[in-house]
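@channel sequence for tomorrow's demo:
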Amino acid sequence: MLPAVAALVLLAGARALTLEQSLGTSTERGAPGEFRRNRIPVGEHEAKPLAAFPAPENCGVNHNSKARGESNTCGVGGLARYPPTLVSISKEKVSDYKAIMCNNNDGWEYPQEDIMVTVTQVSGGEVCAYTPSSKVGYSMYREVWNHTHTMLLGDWKDRDFMTSKNREKAAKNKRAKKDLDEDLMIVPYAHFGSIYAHSLLDFLPQAYATVDYVKAKGLKILTGSNLQRRLLLATGLSRDFISSAMSAEDQLMCLSKGRSAHIMETNLAAKTSHEYFYHRTLGYRGVGQRIAAAMVATDVSDRLRGSPRQPTVVFLGRCGAGARAMDNEDNAFTMVQALLEKKGRPELLVRFCGESGKPELQAAALSRATAVIGPHGGAMANLLYANPGCNTHIIEFVQSTPFVPPGEHQAPQGRYKSFYYYGMGAPFDYKLVLMDKVSSTKPNSTESLHVRLGDLADALNRIW
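structure tokens (generated this afternoon):
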């Protein structure tokens, strides 16, 4: 079952129908399930609220301070910022970090707000959905239409709608799929479906939040890769509720007459319109825990039988990855191992390298983790399975420079980039430790990353 609905938003006014009407009751304004505008930007369509997810405690707030809302890192005054704590024996490095994170919007975070998962049904005549190419952006949105109206999905408020000419071109594209005889559940965030981290951040929690609705309505979740399909199957979801089709970039997908597309979105629960709210916060509102529990209970590959169930410390490494390799990752792991033994900690130390083929193993270990440690990279997306709370400690190794230089088709990536991701990690006790770029000893590589082991030791002593 989905979490109990904290508040159902019954919308009114020019931008939305009441809940009863959004379920398909005939109205004077239009036929059931039809959009009533020629072009419907983000936040201006009818949506059925499924469940509200309350804001978690923000662990970046100094709860011992008399000043309301004081930041552990930034104190009071200036911007309302609650970034992770940078642990460094260098006062200069800490000062530089605070200057960047507390006094400007580089690395800004979303506030901790109650969010609502909603679903909009698109039906009536032709029903099509288009997934753009990442060559024209980040492909973080889709466009859906029926025979009278068009809706944009995702976080692109100013994105132009497709022209009739472009629709015709998409229809003739060899990737186009027509007359798909299924009722679909569509997650708006369509990019990089084959990349493990993006599937955990932008697909799995959003899709899984609708599972009860999908089963009740007999829908099929649209995936964008075999990886996404495998993750859903790992939760125990029957193939009957996963679409036979997979979406691709620059692809038009149209449904058979009488079929409907159902669009899930994340919205602010407190607003009177269904405006997009940062979807990556959803996994840390209990959805990730439900996914982990389902994967452990299902244990598709029968890997967990007889495995230990004690609390864990999880080291999520890069393990010799070619890009952005760490030259002293093994030293960092050995330090964690030695300090665990020295402190007499009861946790089991587990090391992963982000193996996408072992989701139930990672879910089992992360769901019992008291601490998660490792360098910034795809493996840290496994935080999805961790138990949100200020007693769950995260230590992530980051760079003080932009992680990836700005590029025409790359997302903005500021300094100190981490899986805290704009406030997503606020429900954890989150600490950062710096990595430096050094000359690489590996063939065909000019530089690698080197975590500051003295700073790591300091961070470990703070949590233990």
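heads up for whoever presents: Residues 1-37 have pLDDT under 50 and may be disordered.
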